């Protein structure tokens, strides 16, 4: 595993900023899916909310140029959001880190786990040859509660180039 892979798995900072520094390109957020769903038992337990509570489910790609550098799946309990934050989140095409910054939200990222997986379907989705992905899961904590739970996927081959 090279240094950029370790950085992606362990950082508690902005992934968007890291990808922009790595690619030297602006990262765009492309929303794949976004909807409000009732929390099922597993989501309710993970977010520490009641079953049936409204949760924003969001799947986005972080793209630099025409290439996908990350896929992020997030769950956000809507009752924990201020209206203006909720509006920006629902607009969808703003990275979560930038929404936090724009709203002066003091929060921390708590990494739950990170690993390498093999996944042919993800390789097709990302348009990469090698099916090796870094995957990590973390919570964004605000005022002692989970504000957002995120799982991110990074195609390892996109972060193996010797020159950018």
Draw up the topology in text.
Blueprint: H1 3-10, H2 15-23, E1 27-38, H3 41-47, E2 54-64, E3 67-77, H4 83-91, H5 96-102, E4 108-118, H6 120-126, E5 132-142, E6 145-155
Antiparallel strand pairs: 1-2, 2-3, 3-6, 4-5, 5-6
Low-confidence stretches: none
- How many distinct helices? 6
Please state the second-level CATH architecture: 3-Layer(aba) Sandwich
How many beta-strand elements?
A: 6
Rg, Cα atoms, Å: 16 Å
Mean pLDDT: 90
Instruction: Calculate the terminal CA-CA distance, rounded to whole Å.
Output: 18 Å
* CATH homologous superfamily designation: Chorismate lyase-like
Globally, the shape reads: globular
Classification by helices and strands: alpha+beta
Total discrete domains: 1
Largest sheet: 6 strands, antiparallel
CATH fold description:
Chorismate lyase
Question: Overview of this structure, please?
Answer:
This protein has 164 residues and is of the alpha+beta class. It has one domain (3-159): Chorismate lyase-like (Chorismate lyase). It is 29% helix and 41% strand. The chain has helices at residues 3-10, 15-23, 41-47, 83-91, 96-102, 120-126, and strands at residues 27-38, 54-64, 67-77, 108-118, 132-142, 145-155. Strands 1-2-3-6-5-4 form a six-stranded antiparallel β-sheet. It is globular and about 45 Å long. The two termini are 18 Å apart.
């Amino acid at each position: 595993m090279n240094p950029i892979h370790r950085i992606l798995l362990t950082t508690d900072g902005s992934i968007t900023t890291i990808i922009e520094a790595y690619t030297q390109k602006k990262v765009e957020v492309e929303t794949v899916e976004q909807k409000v769903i009732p929390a099922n038992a597993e989501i309710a337990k993970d977010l520490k909310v009641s079953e049936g509570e409204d949760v924003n489910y969001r799947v986005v790609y972080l793209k630099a140029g025409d290439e996908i550098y990350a896929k992020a799946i997030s769950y956000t309990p809507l009752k924990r959001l201020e209206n203006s934050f909720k509006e920006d989140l629902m607009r969808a095409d703003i990275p979560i880190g930038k929404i936090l910054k724009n709203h002066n939200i003091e929060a921390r990222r708590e990494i739950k786990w990170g690993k390498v997986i093999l996944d042919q379907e993800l390789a097709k989705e990302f348009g990469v040859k090698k099916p090796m992905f870094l995957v990590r899961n973390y919570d964004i904590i605000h005022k002692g509660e989970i504000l957002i739970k995120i799982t991110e996927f990074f195609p390892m081959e996109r972060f193996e180039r010797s020159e950018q």
